[in-house]
Every structure is written in structure tokens, then in C-alpha cells.
Specification:
The chain is α+β, with helices and mostly antiparallel strands and 746 residues long. It folds into three domains: 203 residues, Metalloenzyme, LuxS/M16 peptidase-like (Cytochrome Bc1 Complex, Chain A, domain 1); 171 residues, Metalloenzyme, LuxS/M16 peptidase-like (Cytochrome Bc1 Complex, Chain A, domain 1), CATH 3.30.830; 227 residues, Lipoprotein localisation LolA/LolB/LppX (outer membrane lipoprotein receptor (LolB), chain A, Clam), CATH 2.50.20. It has 20 helices and 25 strands. It has a 13-stranded antiparallel β-sheet with strand order 18-17-16-15-14-13-25-24-23-22-21-20-19, with helices on both faces. Strands 1-2-6-3-5-4 form a six-stranded mixed β-sheet, sandwiched between helices. α9 crosses α12 and α11 crosses α15. It starts with 71 loop residues before the first strand and ends in a 15-residue tail after the last strand.
Length: 746
């Protein structure tokens, strides 16, 4: 019972160092009132380039030209998977890039984060390999493999030396078609996603960006949905499995192979590797009604103690296929996309001195997306800076860019475009982006030409049609005590929210339906495991368990030797005696809803005794319910709520995996060895923390199989690791009831 073990650490603090006495000064000391000579005048700065007539003038920008791309071949596998091949023998490297059209825009509101979680889990285990085996396979050939999710798609990549391309052809199909989403790995992935959500609370800029999308699009559009801790923590393995089953289909996927490949042989290799990926219907992408926007809406996100205000001003953007797309590239470069050459940077930073920088951008997605201006400044300058931004948006909408600005934007955008294609894999990544939006390779070749066709009139017309100075949303993340008076003085109406509140109101996910046949198979496995354990009758007859163990527990960076004795009298009496470092004694005993504990006082180091109850007993109720020797009885109960999960491999051995709901709102995941029918692992997660218990070295004790080696590890609030060797186990021993009585104070 790891969570009942306590480690008392006594810290000694050094007292403050004495401060030296100040040096006394007389009133007349110093030279405050003494006349001083004027500082010498600095000599005028001499311009060493003045009068020079032989300076080299920069060359005039060349007119935009098409990008020279390598040959791109297209083929289609028998299962409908589209493949593009970009051959380049400059380096002996080959890269495989895949895009499954399943991203955040496809997520249901009740399961926000499922796309990213699923992507991260693809490298965490298949039916053939666990996470470590996948990592070893790719490391052995010096390659890389990765998976991630964007707003529009899930992206997978694998790069190796050309001679090792078989490694990618083996790993990628496994990841795509046979992921197992192991619960132990999901705990770590979920913890990483939770860390991202929590980090947003400390990052005012990220919080401003999240809030402005929610304010612009609302709670009924996918672009307004922002994951929270509870939505991420609620993700379960069956959510990931259902998402994968629905969207990971050959006809919903694009693959690009780049590098030193044999194009003639490649199709056969791909058919053998990916051809077994079964066809299936592609579900329709969800659609959402675009909200309207009239007038201004302002949201103040109160973050006490914030000395700077992060500002976002947003309007609706345009689709990538919009005919005004290239015109918008130009006017936005002039407004805020051109870094230090942009108007916003000049007005807000150089002339106004309000901030370090300001920028503007718009989404390049298949849907409409957003146009956003972002900056930050001192709290006292927040309103004044926002007014400068709004004025520049209005000016661009009315006047558009000048001829000089258009020329500069075209030269920079078109001139820099070809620099993106330094490697064949860069071409592959750009090709995937173009194909996702139904453009094709011609888009990549002609991009500079399309930019070059923009003129002052078309850029002005696009800016006037897209930018609306009267319809926008504003988000300010800062200290409300500084910002509220400024907003009220300006007469701006606003809503105020706390920075700790979820950006999007949460809704509960509907339960995933269970396959009746799979459920019956899971119950059969539980019954078999119960029989191997010792039989239902023998286990149900147990009235008490006493167990002693030795081992080590690691809390943070410190590893501590531990000896434990655990006494459990069913149904509700339990006592743990632990000896840490052979000298620190901790005792915890609980009878029913009341308990007492003995342990060292953190301040004095002396042993103390204290009572506890109420909410402090709830975790112990859960510990008593999930007793490892009896948990299979709970799972075999006809009233038990079981959910069959995909099989997993632990240490190369296949396991049946079943989820068991507890009466405490926590689900246990049981891993049963397919060959031995013994329980190998139990894991669970709770409020962002997780724990995994591994069992091995089973021995017979009075006809009951007992694991004599136990390893526990946790993440989050349960972050620790414990290894125990069981020294003795006794079922139904004679136990003196007085051991549960609270002793006199030491």
C-alpha cells in the first residue's frame, strides 16, 4: 500500500547572516554642493561613407519565377492509399511522410485532445512491439520516427538511410494498423497533455490566443473549443481506439516518399507493407455553422500580479482556396506579417514605444480560419496600444498598401519561398500540405508567380473586403485592477473572467458502447484467471491476510530502504507498519471510517501520534477495495462493470486487458497473461495522477497463487517508485484485535 507509506524528513535551516553596520557620514561629506566642470562635448560622429561615389548598389529584385521541383510521381495502392514519390539521390536517405485527415477539427467536443493523444500513442506500442521495442528498432538503424496531430490532420514520419528503408516499411504499417494504446503509456501521454494545459495558466500569451479563438467563434464551433484539464484527464483508451478505428483508413490518407528510392521497386514494397491495411468508408467531416460578428466584443482575463498585458485583436479570416489568398499575403505582410518592416511594428514599437513587437497573421486552412493581431505591453499602455492597432487595421482596410509596400512584400514572400525546399523531405511536407487542400504540385511550382501577380489595386480591394474596422473581438490578459479603470474610462464594455476558469465550458462524454461478444470473452478470461489464482470459493473464504516485505521506495531523487508488515482483516480493518532507512517508523491503522497514525514530526523529528477520518479515509477505502489478492473476485462479480480493451504485450508476452469500474469513480485496468492466466499488472489514473502495479514471481501459498515480487510506479501526484520482495504471506492467521487500537501517546 504505497500511498500509505510516509517519509519524514527533518530540515535544519541556517539563521540569517549579520548585516554590516552602515558607514556613518557627516552632513558635509561628499561633493553634492561643490561646483563641477561641464562635461566635455562629444566630437561629432563622422559618416565614413559620406561623399563616396564608388559604393555598390544592391541589385534590383528579380521578377518571381517558378520553383524548380524534382520529378514527382503518383501511384495508388490497391486499398486506395494515394502515394507520391519524390526521387532525389543527393543523399542516401529516404523519408516516409503520411497524413491522415483526422485532426483537432474532427474532434467531438466531449473528447477534446483525442487527436493529439492518439497520435502520440502510435509510437507507444503495437501488437508486435511495445514502446521500448519500437524505439530500439529505429535507433538501431540511426533513424527517426514520430507522430503528431495538427488542426487538420495526424502526421506520421519515418526517416532512415536508404539501405534501411525496410525498417520504416515495417514500423509504419504496424503503427497505423495495430496500435494497442497501452494504458501505462497513455498515463504518461495524458500527463504530458495535462502539463500543456497547465502551462497555459502560466503563459499569458498562450492564454490570450486561446481566449480570442473562443470569443471569436463561440462555444458551438470547433475553433472555439479549448481543452481543459478535466477534458484531457477524462480521455480513456477506448476513446483513442474508437477515434483510430473511425478515421485511420487508407482512403483518408496521403503518403509521400522522398529521397534515394528505387521507384520501380517501391510500389511492390509498399503493396506488401501497406496493402494489408483494409479499406473502409471515410466518415464525413463534421460541419459547423459560422457565427456572425457585428460590433466589438472585449474579454478581460484577470491574471493578478501580471505586470504586462497580452493583447489579441481578431476577425474572421479566409479559406486557403479563397481567390483573395495571395492578395491577403501581401497586405498582411505590410500590416504585421513582415516583422520589423511592417506597419504595426513601426507604429506600436518604433513610434509609440509601447512594446517590443506586434504582428498579424491569418490561418491557412481549408476552412475560413481567423485573422489575429497580437502584441503585449505594460498594463498602463494596454488600451492606448489597442487603439493604435485598431487604427492601423482601419487604415489598411480603407487605403490598402502602397506601391512600395507591395513591391517589398512580393520580393520577400516570393523570394523566400524557394528557400523552403532545402531537402527532398521539405518538398514532401509541402506537397502533403497542398494535397490536403486539393491544390496539387502545381501550387508549389507556381506559388511565387501567383504572389507576383498581386498589384496595389487587388491588395487594396482584398484588404477592404476582409478587414472590418467595426467588427472585431479583443482579448486582454492582465491584472484587472490595472486594466478595468482604463477600459471604463475609455467607455469600452467588456466581460471579465478569471484566468483559472476553463476557456470552453465542459460537457461530459457519452459512454462508448461495449461489444457484447468482446464482453463475454473478457468475462471468460476473468473466470479463468480466478480459477488459476486459487478458485472463487477459496478466495471468497479468506477473512484476513498478513504479509511482510522488504525493498526500496524512491521519492523524488532519494531511494530509501523499507520493511513493511501489512495486516488486513476483512472487510474494513487494515494496519501498515513500515520501517524506513532502518530507523524511521511509520504506522497507519484504519478501522471503518476512523484511523490513527504514528510518524516523525517534520519539525522536531520526534515520534507523534494523530487521529484522522472523513475525507482522509477515502483513499484507504479504495485501497481496501482493490486488494491485489482479491481483485479478481471483484471483477468476477456478476454486477461488475467490465470493459474489454485491446490486447497488449508486456515484456513481449501477450496479455488480455480489461477495465473494471470501481465504486469510487476510478477505473482499474487489469492485465492478464494469455498463457499463464495470471494477473501481471493493475493500473489506474485519478485527477491527472496515475499508478501502475506489476506482479511477478508467483508462488503457491495454501493453494493460492501469490506474486512475491511487486513493483509500483506513479506519475503526477503519485510520482514515486517502489520495489518489494514478499518475505511471508499468511491467510487467515490469528490476529489480536488490539493491534488496531490506538496506542498511548509516545
Amino acid at each position: 500500500m504505497k500511498r500509505l507509506l510516509a517519509l519524514a524528513v527533518v530540515l535544519a535551516a541556517c539563521g540569517p547572516k549579520p548585516t554590516p553596520a552602515p558607514l556613518p557620514l557627516l552632513p558635509g561629506d561628499g561633493d553634492t554642493n561643490v561646483a563641477k566642470p561641464l562635461p566635455p562635448k562629444a566630437p561629432p560622429v563622422k559618416d565614413q561613407w559620406a561623399g563616396k561615389t564608388d559604393l555598390i548598389k544592391p541589385p534590383a529584385p528579380k521578377p518571381p519565377a517558378p520553383v524548380e521541383l524534382p520529378q514527382i510521381d503518383e501511384l495508388k495502392l490497391s486499398n486506395g492509399l494515394r502515394v507520391f514519390v519524390v526521387k532525389s539521390d543527393r543523399l542516401p536517405v529516404v523519408s516516409f511522410q503520411l497524413a491522415v485527415k483526422a485532426g483537432r477539427m474532427h474532434e467531438p467536443r466531449s473528447r477534446l485532445g483525442v487527436a493529439e493523444a492518439t497520435a502520440h500513442m502510435l509510437v507507444k506500442g503495437t501488437k508486435k512491439r511495445d514502446a521500448l521495442a519500437i524505439a530500439k528498432a529505429i535507433d538501431f538503424v540511426g533513424g527517426t520516427i514520430a507522430a503528431d496531430a495538427t488542426f487538420e490532420a495526424t502526421l506520421l514520419s519515418c526517416s532512415v538511410l536508404a539501405k534501411n528503408q525496410a525498417t520504416c516499411l515495417e514500423l509504419l504499417p504496424e503503427m497505423l494498423t495495430q496500435p494497442t494504446f497501452p494504458d501505462a503509456e497513455l498515463v504518461k501521454v495524458r500527463e504530458g497533455l495535462l502539463a500543456q494545459v497547465r502551462q497555459r495558466l502560466d503563459d499569458a500569451g498562450a492564454q490570450a490566443s486561446a481566449h480570442v479563438q473562443n470569443l471569436l467563434w463561440g462555444n458551438d464551433h470547433v475553433r472555439g473549443w479549448i481543452p481543459s484539464e478535466s477534458t484531457v484527464a477524462a480521455l480513456k483508451r477506448d476513446d483513442l481506439a474508437a477515434w483510430h478505428k473511425a478515421w485511420f483508413i487508407p482512403g483518408n490518407t496521403i503518403m509521400v516518399v522522398t529521397g534515394d528510392v528505387d521507384a520501380k521497386k517501391l510500389k511492390g514494397d509498399l503493396e506488401r507493407s501497406f496493402g494489408r491495411w483494409a479499406k473502409g468508408p471515410v466518415p464525413p467531416a463534421p460541419s459547423f455553422k459560422e457565427p456572425g460578428l457585428s460590433g466589438s466584443r472585449i474579454r478581460l482575463v484577470d491574471k493578478p500580479g501580471q505586470t504586462q498585458t497580452h493583447i489579441r485583436v481578431a476577425q474572421f479570416g479566409i479559406k486557403h482556396q479563397d481567390p483573395r489568398f495571395f492578395d491577403s499575403l501581401v497586405w498582411n505582410y505590410t500590416l504585421g506579417g513582415g516583422a520589423f518592416s511592417s506597419r504595426l511594428m513601426r507604429v506600436v514599437r518604433v513610434e509609440g514605444g509601447k512594446t517590443y513587437g506586434a504582428s498579424s497573421s491569418f490561418d491557412r486552412n481549408a476552412d475560413k480560419g481567423s485573422f489575429v493581431v497580437q502584441t503585449f505591453t505594460r498594463n498602463t499602455e494596454a488600451v492606448a496600444t489597442t487603439k493604435l492597432i485598431l487604427a492601423e487595421i482601419a487604415k489598411m482596410s480603407k487605403e490598402g498598401p502602397t506601391q512600395t509596400e507591395v513591391d517589398s512584400a512580393i520580393a520577400n514572400i516570393a523570394g523566400g519561398y524557394g528557400m523552403r525546399f532545402q531537402a527532398a523531405s521539405d518538398v514532401g511536407a509541402a506537397l502533403i500540405g497542398a494535397e490536403l487542400h486539393d491544390f496539387g504540385k502545381e501550387y508549389l511550382q507556381n506559388f511565387p508567380l501567383m504572389v507576383g501577380k498581386v498589384d496595389v489595386a487587388s491588395a487594396k480591394r482584398a484588404a477592404g473586403e476582409i478587414l472590418d474596422p467595426r467588427a472585431y473581438v479583443i482579448v486582454m490578459v492582465g491584472d484587472a485592477k490595472d486594466l478595468e479603470p482604463l477600459l471604463k474610462k475609455e467607455g469600452w464594455r467588456f466581460e471579465k473572467v478569471a484566468f483559472t476558469e476553463p476557456v470552453t465550458p465542459e460537457i461530459k462524454a457519452a459512454p462508448t458502447p461495449v461489444d457484447p461478444k468482446a464482453l463475454e470473452a473478457a468475462k471468460k478470461v476473468i473466470d479463468e484467471a480466478l480459477a488459476v489464482k486459487g478458485g472463487k470459493a477459496k478466495l471468497a473464504a479468506i477473512k484476513a491476510i498478513k504479509m511482510t516485505a522488504t525493498g526500496n521506495t524512491q521519492i523524488g531523487p532519494q531511494t530509501v530502504p523499507v520493511e513493511t508488515e501489512r495486516t488486513f482483516v476483512l472487510p474494513d480493518k487494515i494496519r501498515i507498519d513500515a520501517l524506513l532507512m532502518s530507523r524511521v517508523k511509520v504506522v497507519i491503522a484504519v478501522v471503518g471510517s476512523k484511523g490513527w497514525q504514528i510518524g516523525p514530526d517534520p519539525k522536531t523529528g520526534n515520534s507523534t501520534i494523530a487521529d484522522f477520518g472523513g475525507d482522509d479515509v477515502k483513499p484507504i477505502d479504495f485501497e481496501r477495495w482493490r486488494e491485489p489478492e482479491l481483485i479478481l473476485l471483484k471483477a468476477a462479480d456478476p454486477a461488475a462493470k467490465l470493459t474489454p480493451l485491446p490486447d497488449e504485450a508486456i515484456g513481449g508476452k501477450p496479455h488480455t486487458v480489461v477495465s473494471l469500474a470501481s465504486p469510487f469513480g476510478i477505473e482499474l485496468v487489469l492485465y492478464i497473461d494469455k498463457k499463464t492466466k495470471l494477473l501481471s499488472r493493475v493500473s489506474y489514473s485519478e485527477k491527472g495522477s496515475a499508478e501502475t502495479d506489476d506482479f511477478s514471481d508467483y508462488k503457491d501459498v495454501k493453494g493460492i497463487k501469490v506474486a512475491h515480487k511487486r513493483k509500483s510506479s506513479g506519475t503526477g501526484g503519485n510520482a514515486r517508485s517502489t520495489d518489494l520482495d514478499i518475505k511471508s504471506v499468511d491467510f487467515d492467521p490469528t490476529i489480536d484485535p488490539k493491534v488496531f487500537d490506538k496506542p498511548a501517546a509516545p
